[in-house]
Structures
1.
Amino acid sequence: MQLTMRKLNGVDVVGVLAERIDAAVAIRFKDEVRAITSQSRGRVVLDLSRVDFIDSSGLGAIVAAMKQLDGQAALDLAGLQPNVDRVFRLTRMDTVFAIHATAETACPTHAQ
Amino acid sequence: MPNDPRSRTVGRPGPDRSGEEGRRLPARAGPRVRAAVRLQLSFPGTALSVRKVLQTVRTGLEPLALDPEETGTIELVLAEALNNVVEHAYPPEARGWITLNCHIAPDGLHVSIRDKGRPMPDGGPPLGQTAPLPETLDTLPEGGFGWFLIRDLSRDIRYSRQDDTNELCFRINLHRAEATAPGDPAP
């Protein structure tokens, strides 16, 4: 599982370069998000635009990733494809996470 | 009427699934006529095998020309049910095999999953009620969504244990699926 980290208008954006967050990678995903966000303060955006499948294990790993962030930090989600979005809605986890259309809309410039 | 001869098994890269294509095409092939699909797959009970099998199922369902949401539903429900077997029926030190059967019928996709692992606790599938959302972040559930999703997206769930074999059966509605069964009289 490959993750990327970039700054977008001052916000940490973690990109997931995998098509699936499923039972086969859920634990590794959680550990790698923790590692890559260890220096993050404030809001972190998880860019899921490349992910086209998530199961309950992957959903649990994202919830766990949010919980393990520093107490001051929040985890937002961006770029959910339809089948991913549906898992969040069915489990009502869409009420727990702030969900943005894209990483760019999640991180507007200060001028906006 | 006999079963449609175009019923076929895919998965194992069997050499012969040609030869019958084009035979007995429905005379009034409209959008509600679905191809007959029958899948049987046996595979080791590991998360990676499950991932590969889901890909095989997606490929096997292509003749049905399902919309992406239906395909997503099928993949999700199968993933949850199969990963439950991997995680709960077979302990890590005693991996076993899983057999998946799927076939299309007028009322949707019928699925059977068999394994020789531990029986379901309490003799039946969990209820999988929606986990109530706790007020505080720290107690948010990280699990327990699997059976909720299975129950939400499938119908007619039945579990049985015979000798040393578990079998879980269910059906997934396909919402355009007043699919005409092979051999049914045309409407």
Note: Chain A has a mean pLDDT of 93.
2.
Amino acid sequence: MKKELKIFDKPENVKRFLGFFYASLVVLLIVDFFIHKHAEFPWEGAPEFFAVYGFVSCVLLIFIAKLLRIFIKRDENHYE
Amino acid sequence: MNSLIPPAAIFIVGALFVPLMRGRLKSAFMLVLPVLAFATLVNMPEGKYWIVNFLDYDLIFGRVDKLSMVFGYIFTIVSFIGILFALKVEDDLQHVSALMYAGGALGVTFSGDFFSLYIFWELLAISSTFLILARRTKTSQAAAFRYIQVHVFGGLCLLAGIMVYIHDSGTTEFSYIGLNGIGSWLIFIGIALNAAIPPLHPWLQDAYPEATVTGAVFMSALTTKSAVYLMARTFPGTELLIWVGAFMTAMPIFYAVLENDIRRVLAYSLINQVGFMMCGIGIGTALAINGTVSHAFCHILYKALLFMSTGSVLYMTGKIRCTDLGGLYKTMPLTCLFCIIGAASISAFPLFSGFISKSMIISAAAHGNLIAVWLILQFASAGVFHHAGIKVPFFTFFGHDSGIRTKEPPLNMLLAMGIAAFLCVAIAVFPGPLYDILPYPVDYVPYTGAHVVGQLQLLMFGALAFCLLILAGYYPAEMRAINLDTDWFYRKGGRLFYYIMDKVLNGVNRLADRVIARAIPGWLGQLSRTPISSLMTLYMRVTGKGFATEALNTETRPEATSLAPMGTAVLLSLVFLFLLFVVFVFLA
């Protein structure tokens, strides 16, 4: 067997990856102030609108999905 | 022009020869078919041809315009990729049905009349059923059975609609229909079922994950997208589609977040993506239709890529649940890379194909000042990245190490994924050629600073939410469980129906058996053999005078055979016939 990749086995690599990820978020937040916006809706032009919307959307998504799970979750053999 | 063979026929006739060949010849033959079909497409000028007169109607096998050409191109491209991916499968059933299936999709795309359309439409349903059956497990058999029944229902709706349409308009040719009258509604429902519009969607998430590894690749590409084509042809600008489309983008992502089976996550995200297309068709402006068509084009490639990469995992490990997988990047790095490219494309990252197509639909919603729709579509875009973009690769290739050590799939599978991945990136970097073949002239620039940064923010901060929720342990845990969907109504309802029919019809059966088949003939037999004493016995029983000399011998017939509820099928057919009758007599 070929040698395995193990880069994410080392916690410092995971940390490095996350660090890079957080840094890119900060860059995106800063760049937002320097671009020309051609907004169709007024709020599109608001600073950091998409960052906030993306974050809130995904938190809401998970929150509602967890709620939904209470009602729709069944055993794997439910239909058998 | 008539010297060329229709592209659908190349696949369908070609499929018949596949079982006669072996080894490399067979592989080469199968790969040549889509190439031939593509070459035919390139040489097809716009117009209507391959017209065959049949029962006073014209069957048109070649209605060629810009709309049908785009779908023709992508169906042949994805067929080539799918065949390459399936090349090493030693199962002629799968090869033949996949080729027939591709032929059916091309047939639907180029039909200019309802008769030929309907034939190809049913061919789609039947041939794809065999791609599920070919998995040869008990669950796949059951899923295939449900799949074909749902599609037969959809096909009947379409057929009934077509009959009303032909009755009203006097022609079998079709183009724009629009919602007016019962016929158009029935056609709409028939197409909507194949497009997996809720609540008619559950067949998709039920059946696709049960299909064979290679069959799912074809299925992800052909059925829903031929329905998208037909919807764009017949119902553009139908306002209802804007709203069902928007709902369709949002609803499945909640399911996808909770789902354990990776291919079912992809099935839900497929519904979500087709939702964008339905929304675009509903908006119906040139920009929206261009967006829909280009999104279908890109979607077919990245969805096939995702089904191929997760299918490779299933093929190599035999496992496909989040709970069973994890850490596979160590031994399948290339498959992992292809999966990530597919994931980035479906998430519409800049420089990946979804970015240059989906944004057109969202822009069209903004131009139409559809605020709520725009907000839902943006929400769904963030949600797509969440489940298809992060969850699928994360739980399969990263996450907890499942301890599974395997290797990359065979070369032909890697090549097929490589081609799809290359196209996903190439289309995004050079969108010009795709934009050139769209139905309307394109005046759209995807790469503006605001669009790139806005989209990146939306996605990356969605990823941040994922990251923080996972680290906080609040992310819904991977669980061995299923989630109820609208298929509950026919999976449980079907059983209830069966139970009631069993009790009622078998009750009638038993009663009839007891009275008509046993008691009366028995008594009549007795009467004919010993008329006097039988009558005396009867007289004594009725009047109570004297004693019966012998009991009635009713056992003159052999035991009846099985009492299986055959009546259920007959009753169902009767109900359908009656409904058709009602539709024609009272409504048409």
Note: The first strand of chain B starts at residue 47 and ends at 54.
